[in-house]
Amino acid sequence: MNRLVNGITGTLLFLLTFWVQAAEETAAALEPAPRVNTIWVGVFFLVFVGLCAWFALSIYRNEKKIKKDVQKS
Question: What is the pLDDT of residues 17-37, one digit of tens each?
Answer without folding.
Answer: 777 676 666 666 666 777 889
